[in-house]
Amino acid sequence: MEPDVSIETSSMIRIAILPIGKIPHQTLRDYYSMFLHHHTIPLSSISSFYTEEQKSPFTNQPWETGSLRFKFVLGGAPPSPWEDFQSNRKILAVIGVCHCPLSPDLDSVIEEFNGICKGYASARVTRCFGFFPCDSQLEDGSKKGENLRLFPPADRQTQEMHLQTMMQEIAASLLMEFEKYVFQAESAGTILKTPLDSQASLSSEEVIKAKKRRLGRAQKTIGDYCLLAGSPVDANAHYSTALELARLTSDYFWYAGALEGSVCALLIDRIGQKDPALEEEVRYRYSSVILHYKKSFIQENAQRVSPLSFELEANLKLARYLCRRELAKDVVELLTSAADGAKSLIDATDRLVLFVEIARLFGSLGYQRKAAFFSRQVACLYLQQDNRLAAISALQVLAMTTKAYCVQSRASFSDNSHINEVGSSHADSGKIHHQSVVSLFESQWSTLQMVVLREILLSAVRAGDPLAAWSAAARLLRSYYPLITPAGQNGLARALDNSSERLPSGTRCGDPALPFVRLYSFPLHPSQMDIVKRNPAREDWWAGSAPSGPFIYTPFSKGEPNDNGKQELIWIVGEPVQILVELANPCGFNLRVDSIYLSVHSGNFDPFPISVDLPPNSSKVIPLSGIPTSAGPVTIPGCTVHCFGVITEHLFRDVDNLLLGAAQGLVLSDPFRCCGSPKLKNVFVPNISVVPPLPLLVSHVVGGDGAIVLYEGEIREIYISLANAGTVPVEQAHISLSGKNQDSVLSIPYETLKSVLPLKPGAEVTIPVTLKAWKLGLLDLDNASGKHASGSMARQLKDSSSPSLLIHYAGPLTDCEDPPKGSVLTPGRRLVVPLNICVLQGLSFVKARLLSMEIPAHVGENLPKPVHVENSASKEAIGSETKMDGLVKIDPFRGSWGLRFLELELSNPTDVVFEISVSVQLDSTEDKLSVGQDATEYGYPKSRIDRDFSARVLIPLEHFKLPILDGSFFMKDFKPDGAAGSRNSSFSEKSIKAELKASINNLISRIKVRWQSGRNSSGELNIKDAIQAALKTSVMDVLLPDPLTFGFRLVRNDLSQESNDSRPKGSVLAHDMTPMEVLVRNNTKEVIKISLSITCRDVAGENCVEGTKATVLWSGVLNGITIEAPPLQESKHSFSLYFLVPGEYTLMAAAVIEDANDVLRARAKTNSPDEPIFCRGPPFHVRVIGTA
């Protein structure tokens, strides 16, 4: 059988192209390509070379439309035993090709050519072409034989024109030779035999039969030459005669050959036409051809020679003629019949050619898998030959089947598509089309795919191609490790190692082996390296920009519209970056990865390689790092791996497709799940861009970066050091606060940082920050109550509760003085300095309450004065101790005067000792001791609270009482307008509540409770809530004075006598008329009418001035005394008492206010306008001495 046969093959003239002399292989191929352009020579172009010696036997030669067809055979071919049967199998012309620069001796060239031509007895025309001869060769060549043709040196186009002329001359010579042959065949009897003819002695009947057959065969041969001469009408006439004679002599084999020739003549005559009638005629005739080839089968010759090859060729010719998708069914039937006949072919070469042709035709139909199947049959036939060339052929054939079996090498992809795939590998955030996954992975083909790869591996080993062997073993191990036993896996690993030993160092392969590599995550920027875009139009250039990185949500993007596009990740030139990838080794051997690093095609990134050891059936997450080298976008499609001695590129996209296929059941297994790795959710790959170098601030807390331990309310100053670790100076910087408890940062020295700008690379600045610990919540207190000494701080430290310093900083606006228009500003940075404050429970409030003290005053010659009166009366300079004594100490002889105390009970649950100090702050309007000052603070003696103990602290509230009672405290919204009479007669409840709250806050703000523990730990307690709760119901009693103040005083008429009196101070004698005065002070701004009453009680509390058992006599009026007290002045009323019994007595004054106004009723908390208002003064003690 012959390859590449068709119905038109019978009309092609075979010409052998033979190298003569020394000629390089590539040069020979170049010359051969020139011949291929002249495979068809029109008859009209050879008329100048054609001479008709006698009348041509080709009477119907189509000189205007016909042509001669050449089939060039490079290197020639051995003579075929079937040349008599099919004349187109003969080598009818020989052309020698000589490269004259390497063959200077033309005589030896001609001699060599003539010697070669002797091996081609069927050749009718011989020519030797010499290319690029020198001048001497041109001169010498003209004297040589006529078969030598020299082509002068010229360009390619000129050479081809010259060659075209030579081919026209050869065509004319062949045509004339064909005419001679036909004349000889018709005149003289020619014996034509085939291997099918019997070699035994023939009987007389067989001799007669043979003579008749000879005539028919001669007509068939003449028809062949007519067809080769380009005269299909003449050929058809001779084929018709041959058919009649062959049918009469039952020469089925030649009958089929003549019928084949007639079909070829029909197609040549109707060249370019393809109508259904012609197609049906060709199909019908070829069916008869196939049938008669079958009839010519002789059983006794079956072991030696068989016409089966011609039958199969006929099937292939008809299939090639009908080969199109509309007639696919008929073509498949023909090819299937031909494939079935392959079993009966004797020659393995014939089977090889048959399978090649079947594979080609199935491929032309688009049946790639059928074509791949027969290609594998071709490869198997090649592998049966134990030689390297056959193995190379098998490898090449198998490489063509890999696409159909979906096991093709990545190197077989086109470069452009590969680059596009790499560039867009993660550009769509991991989008994978379902159809591509189905086409790449089909688990039902796994066994067949393994067989194909094994055959490729075997062929590559035999062919001595270590790279192809490594590629096949890598694909086999990577794709089908679940179906391979551990021993088989180790064998493939050894095959990889053996192949790599035969490869030069640094060899790259497009097919990755192990390990499997997938993208694990892009680590976010550390808090000290966040990138912030700059807005040059705003002074706060960082506003409205969120830190860079693949954030789905960031707390720093307040109210910004969420961009649904891809996130952006910014890298900085010269700063190392890191990406996490996961490696998996699902095989049963230890895997040594010599190096692995990120694969970047943009050229602006230097990766750092690392080596990894992976135990059997294990996975490992590793960081891969590198340094950006120049600004621009960066694309990371995968990793470059040096393993098993070869460098390969592992694309993340391939593993993503693999895992998707495993999830959908299209792939055998998930290599990461096999190694025990948990399922990884989709990793969104950001758009990575590299920007020029930026400054880099690094912070640390002076004294250590651990937790700042503070007790509740403690105030402490810490120092934060900032250093520029970048290569660009810091020219802009701004400090702000973020997080919870921002009010715990009392002061930040903004100017300190700005004063050192620009902060050059390597420079450092230290800024102080004042902190105040906040109050722990109930949950924190519960946790603190159950703490242990060893882990108390660790459990109470909560990053979410601590504030942070945000430092936005940036370098120069541009790197050059004149930036180009439209240039993008380099971004800034945001440094987050977390203030890791650990607040421990300090002093805790147990309770707070308001105490009222009623200490009786003693009646004497002078009336005790209130605090504000005493302060007003002091005009001389008094020391600070005297001031403090006046405020802190209580004179028991002065009396209480409605004195109230705020008692705070404090508990110390900590392990340290606290000292408590209470101070009050008085305004200058109330404190005349500090003239010229806005406020003066006075402190009370310190109290010490040991650990696990409690203490009570008393805070006197007498100094906060107002000196005058008027309506301003109640009537903030009072309008003396006639239209608002209803409002003039009543107070607004809302206004009263607001004024009460303001008064309480004012009072609380003046009282400070501070603590100190050790040398450096101090703070202030938050007593607002406690005081507020204690004063909620008594604030009016604390702040507002009584409308009337009462006092008693002894009246001495004889002061000189008193000076010599030895009685105790403030005492009176029994049985003596003692004159006294009661003083009533009006603390309001209006005249008050009162009805005053005076009582005197003994130690038992009984009234001793009334009744039958009265022990005190009096003169004057003690009851129903009507007095009009002028505003802010005192009124006196004199009386005398005569004590009959010595002892302790108590004087008390009381008054009923008549016609009280709204202010007095509000102070007395009365609702009814008719309810009387009763005022009672404090008790005054009188000591009576003497005898009864």
Account of the protein in words:
The chain has 1188 residues and is α+β, with helices and mostly antiparallel strands. The protein has 31 helices and 47 strands. The strands form 11 sheets. Strands 30, 39, 41, 43, 45, 46 and 47 form a 7-stranded mixed β-sheet that branches. Strand 36 and strand 37 (1017-1020) form a beta hairpin. Helix 27 crosses helix 28 (1024-1031). Residues 1055-1184 form the Trs120/TRAPPC9 fourth Ig-like domain. It holds the Pfam family Ig_TRAPPC9-Trs120_2nd. Residues 545-645 form the Trs120/TRAPPC9 first Ig-like domain.
Give a quick rundown of the structure:
The chain is built from 31 helices and 47 strands. The chain has 1188 residues and is of the alpha+beta class. Helix content is 32%, strand content 25%.
Residue windows where pLDDT falls under 50 for at least 5 positions:
414-443, 548-564, 786-798, 816-820, 867-889, 925-933, 972-987
Mean pLDDT: 80
Number of helices: 31
Largest sheet: 7 strands, mixed
| Coarse shape | rod-shaped
Calculate the terminal CA-CA distance, rounded to whole Å.
165 Å
Strand content: 25-35%
Estimated helix fraction: 25-40%
DSSP strand tally: 47
- Rg is 60 Å
Structural class: alpha+beta
What is the oligomer described by this structure?
A: single chain
Lay out the secondary structure:
Blueprint: E1 12-20, H1 25-36, E2 40-42, E3 67-74, E4 91-99, H2 106-117, E5 125-131, H3 135-141, E6 148-151, H4 156-187, H5 204-228, H6 232-248, H7 252-269, H8 276-295, H9 308-322, H10 328-341, H11 348-365, H12 368-383, H13 388-401, H14 415-423, H15 434-440, H16 446-463, H17 466-480, H18 486-501, E7 508-509, E8 516-521, E9 530-532, E10 568-572, E11 577-585, E12 591-599, E13 605-607, E14 610-614, E15 618-628, E16 632-634, E17 638-643, E18 646-651, H19 652-663, H20 671-674, E19 687-691, E20 697-701, E21 708-711, E22 715-724, E23 732-739, E24 745-747, H21 750-755, E25 764-772, H22 778-785, H23 792-796, E26 803-810, E27 828-834, E28 837-840, E29 844-853, E30 857-858, H24 867-873, H25 880-888, E31 899-908, E32 914-923, E33 935-939, E34 943-945, E35 949-956, H26 981-984, H27 989-1005, E36 1007-1013, E37 1017-1020, H28 1024-1031, H29 1035-1039, E38 1044-1050, H30 1055-1059, E39 1067-1069, E40 1073-1082, E41 1088-1097, E42 1112-1115, E43 1121-1125, E44 1130-1139, E45 1143-1154, H31 1158-1164, E46 1173-1176, E47 1180-1185
Parallel strand pairs: 1-3, 1-4, 4-5, 5-6, 7-18, 10-19, 21-28, 30-47, 39-47
Antiparallel strand pairs: 2-3, 8-11, 9-27, 11-15, 12-14, 12-17, 13-15, 16-19, 17-18, 20-22, 22-25, 23-26, 24-25, 26-27, 29-31, 31-35, 32-33, 32-34, 32-36, 36-37, 38-40, 40-44, 41-43, 41-45, 42-44, 45-46, 45-47
Helix pairs in contact: 4-5, 5-6, 5-7, 6-7, 7-8, 8-9, 9-10, 9-11, 10-11, 11-12, 12-13, 13-16, 16-17, 17-18, 27-28
